[in-house]
Specification:
The chain is of the alpha/beta class and 283 residues long. It has a single domain, classed as 3-Layer(aba) Sandwich (Rossmann fold), CATH 3.40.50.1820. The protein contains twelve helices and eight strands. Strands 1-2-4-3-5-6-7-8 form an eight-stranded mixed beta sheet, sandwiched between helices.
C-alpha cells in the first residue's frame, strides 16, 4: 500500500475560494504553469529553474483537488472553474498585473478558458502544451478511440480501478499518449504519491465527470491573447493538423511548434521546449 508523503518546500495561497499549494523559483514577471492529468506541479521541475535563470518568476501550483491543494466540497472541476482558478492565482500572486500563462493537458484546457474569460487584461501571453483548443476539435473515429479515457474515467468505480496495481493505469496512459518515451519508473512517483492522498484521485477524475459536450463560455469566446501552442509529433491523441485547425479560435497571434516526443513533450524533449518557450516569452 502506497503511503502519501506530504510535499515539502511548498508555499500556500488563497485563490478562488481554495487554498492552493505551489512551487516557486526566480524573480521577475510571473509565469504561471498549470499541470494536467495524470500529473502534478512536478511536471514543471525542469522548466521552473530554466525560467528563473532567464529572469522570470516561475510558479507551478497543484491544481484544485490535488494534494496538498485543497479539495472543494463538491464536483467543481469544469474548465471555466479551472480557468477562474488561474485568473485568481494571477491576481493573488501577481498583485493584479497581467502574467504569462502556460498549461499542459487539463492545464491547457484551463488556460484556454482563462484567456477567454480574462483576456489581455489578465494574461500577457498564452502557451499551451499537448492540447489544441477544445472548441476546435472535430470528433473522428481515431480520436474517439485515442481519447476513450474520457468515457472510462467517468464510470462508477473508476477511481478504484485506476488505483489497482499501485496505480498501474498511470503508466498505461503515459505509454499510450507518449509511445516513444522510454521513461524511468521514478518519473511517475510524484503523481502516484499525490493520488495516494485521501480524495485526490477521485478529485482528479472529477475533471472528467464535469466535462460536457458543449464547450463552456470561456472556451466559446474568441481568444485575443497572443498564443503559442506546442504539440508532440508522436502524441497518441492530438495531431499537428488539429493544432493548425484551431487557428480560427484566435483573433490575435497564434503559432504552433511541433517537437519531438508525445503528449508529455515538455518532459520528453525539454531542450526543444524550454528554449522556444523562453524566446517567446521574451519577445
Amino acid at each position: 500500500m502506497r503511503t502519501h508523503t506530504p510535499e515539502r518546500d511548498v508555499k500556500m495561497v488563497q485563490a478562488n475560494g481554495l487554498e492552493f499549494a505551489y512551487f516557486e523559483e526566480g524573480e521577475g514577471p510571473l509565469v504561471l504553469l498549470l499541470h494536467g492529468f495524470p500529473d502534478t506541479a512536478h511536471t514543471w521541475d525542469d522548466v521552473r529553474p530554466a525560467l528563473a535563470a532567464a529572469g522570470f518568476r516561475a510558479v507551478s501550483p497543484f491544481n484544485r483537488g490535488y494534494a496538498p491543494t485543497q479539495r472543494p466540497g463538491a464536483d467543481e472541476y469544469d474548465s471555466d472553474t479551472l480557468g477562474r482558478d488561474a485568473l485568481a492565482l494571477i491576481e493573488a500572486l501577481g498583485g493584479g498585473e497581467p502574467a504569462y500563462l502556460v498549461g499542459h493537458d487539463w492545464g491547457a484546457s484551463a488556460a484556454y478558458s482563462a484567456a477567454g474569460l480574462g483576456g489581455p487584461a489578465a494574461i500577457k501571453k498564452l502557451v499551451t502544451v499537448g492540447i489544441p483548443h477544445p472548441a476546435a476539435i472535430k470528433p473522428t473515429l481515431g480520436l474517439l478511440w485515442g481519447a476513450r479515457h474520457f468515457v472510462t474515467l467517468r464510470l462508477p468505480g473508476a477511481a478504484r480501478r485506476f488505483a489497482r496495481g499501485d496505480f498501474a493505469e498511470v503508466e498505461r496512459l503515459y505509454r499510450r499518449w507518449s509511445p516513444t518515451w522510454d521513461f524511468p519508473r521514478a518519473e511517475l512517483e510524484a503523481v502516484k504519491n499525490a493520488y495516494a492522498a485521501p480524495g485526490c484521485l477521485d478529485a482528479a477524475l472529477g475533471y472528467y465527470r464535469c466535462l460536457t459536450p458543449k464547450p463552456p463560455p470561456g472556451q466559446r469566446a474568441k481568444i485575443e491573447v497572443p498564443t503559442l501552442a506546442f504539440g508532440g509529433r508522436d502524441d497518441g491523441v492530438a495531431t499537428e493538423a488539429m493544432f493548425h485547425g484551431a487557428k480560427r479560435r484566435f483573433m490575435g497571434e497564434y503559432r504552433v511548434i511541433m517537437t519531438s516526443g508525445g503528449h508529455f513533450l515538455h518532459r520528453e524533449a525539454p531542450e526543444e521546449f524550454i528554449g522556444p518557450l523562453i524566446d517567446y516569452l521574451r519577445e
